[in-house]
Each structure stands twice: as C-alpha cells, then as structure tokens.
Amino acid sequence: MQKTLIAAVAAVVCAALLGASGAAATESPVVATTTAPEFDAGSSSAFAEPFGENYDFTSRWTYSTGYDAAGESAKFAIVPAIWRQDKVQAFGIASTEPGKHHTITARLSEPWSMSGTTAAGKTLAIFFTAQAPGRVHGDTSSLRVRLYGKDTDPLTVTRETPYIASFGYDLAPPAERHTELSLWPRGLSAPLAWRDHKHGRPRVQCAIEMRSHSYAFFIDFSVQDLPHFVEFDQYRYSQRGLRRFLAPAARARTGGQSATEFDAETKALEQWRSEELPAVLALDDVYFVGIDLVDSRVGTVVDNVFVGRSAAELATFRAAVFGAQEQQIDREAFEAHLAEEAQKRREVQAEMERIKEKQEREYAEYLAKHDKSEL
Length: 375
Fold this sequence. Notes:
single chain; alpha+beta; Jelly Rolls; eight-stranded antiparallel β-sheet; 16 strands; 23% helix
C-alpha cells in the first residue's frame, strides 16, 4: 500500500514537471492565484513562504538572469511533496532542469536592521523543508537560502553575489552530506564559513529519500561566542558557540591533510580567530531573501521557507505549518545509526592503513633482495 502511494505521488510529480497528457488534458484549466496560503509567521516583519497549489509565486519572487548568458538558468515548478504526517501531499517549488541554477529572490516587506539595540536586531532564524527525489551514486544536489542587502539586484543574483547569511546543504550520496552555513559580516572581503574540528563542513545528516525533511538554523549575535543551533527534523546537532567554528570560506573545505598539516592549520586558524576575527560581527541590513537550487537529478522540492529574528517566531511558524505533525526522528535510533556509520568509517580507515603498511613492508623487502640499480 505504501509503495503504491509513493508511486502514485511520484507519477504526479513527473506529470507536473514534464507536462501531463491524455486524460489530464481534458480537465478544466487551473487558474493561478497571486496569494500565498495564509500562515501566521509570528511577526509582521518575519518572512514566511509556504508556497501552495495554484499559487503564482512569481508575483512575489523574481527570477535571476545571472546565469542566462551561460545557459545555466532554469525555472521552478509547483509540484506536490510529502511533508506532513497527517496529509498525503502539500505543494512546493521543484527543480525542472538538471545541472542548472534555479534562482529566485523576494523583497522583505520592510528591511531588517541586524545591528539594532533590541533583541530582534541581534538574532536570526532560517528554516526550510526540502524533499530530494530518489538518488543513486553520483547524483548531487546543492541548495542555498540566502539573505541579501540593499544594493542587491534580484535580476543578477548568482552564487557569487555578496550576501549577509547563507544556510543550505550539499548532497552527493552516499557519503557526502554536508550542511552549508556561512556569514558575510560588514567590512570583510569574503564570507566566513562554519568549519568543524576536522577542518571540513559539518556532516549534518541530510535525507535523500522521497520525503520532505526540515532544516533549521538559529544564531544569537548579542553574545560574543555566538550561541547557535542547527536542526534536522528537530534533531539538534549543535548548541555551542559558533565563533570557535568560523573560518574564512576558502579554508573551510580542505581535507586529506597529514597530522602535521592538520596541527599547523589548527594553530593558524586559532591565531586568525584571536587576531583577525572581529569581536563583534556587524551585519548589513537585510532587504532580500533568495533561493538557489542546483540538481543533477530534477525533482528536489523546496517548501516552507521562513526567515525571522527570534526562536519564538520560528517556533510559531513551525507550529502553524505542521501543528503537532512535524516529522521527528527517533533520537536514540538516529544516534546509534551515526555511531555505527562512524565505526564503519574507522574500520575502513584502519583497513586502508593496514594495506598501506603491508605494501610498504613488501616493497622494502623487495628492495632488500634486489640491487637498486636493477630498478
């Protein structure tokens, strides 16, 4: 029964993406509306976008032409998605062309001051739900929800456009599933990225099956250590100060270092944080919210985009969208799964080390038995 339901929904998604024919063509035409479904975001200044069936989101969002010259632009489509436990489907925006940027930007009803004296000017919350289609080895997906300043031109936005804050993920099953988080404080020439103690982006779990999952990020700029949390389906990965994990974006994606290189880089980053990272991160005022999605396999559905300035606003929006039906993972089972994956990685690394040592030993024995001049 469950497989039949999933197959039926998948058929609807395909029809929406590729254009239904036959019997569907005889149905009455659907008239798009410019009004999004009503959701209480908890604040008149908070930005909430639940999308919805028959909703003409282009009345609020502007497509970027920044990738047109390279032929890398594509349009979203409104499609159904399975994202609530008490409903078979809802509707969000989905990618329609593989390998191309689906990029849209919307203006806030009023700009936000991120350097104000009130609590609302010192905290930030970003939330979205996303449903990835069934993926196989080699498939990739990259999603960003970004905040932009006053001087941003929605028509020219690309991944290289300066921004204020960015939250999203990069998926490359089966192993690479990274959460992307970066901030671009005023006065810095490049953004700051979140980089864990292993000198890479955090491997926060990201789902790849055909069901929508929620992603949330919250940060408090009023405290120098920058307390924050990141959640996946209400599973909270981090609730520590973010400052100790910030690094220049160009240095946040390195890997494959030796122990000596790792130690040297760790000391260099500690020195950078103490000498060059501003004590107070001053952010520009926020005027725009943007979404950028690139899929190697079309069909990722983005929905329920929310940007607010307090954890209370975020909680209010989530309750309005999901009620008590937001998917929540089994924490104990999930932590056991993560521990099992970590153990498997350690076993693979240990086996690789054994193979390397064996090869080096055999090569040394070969050299000992043969004249090096013969080699």
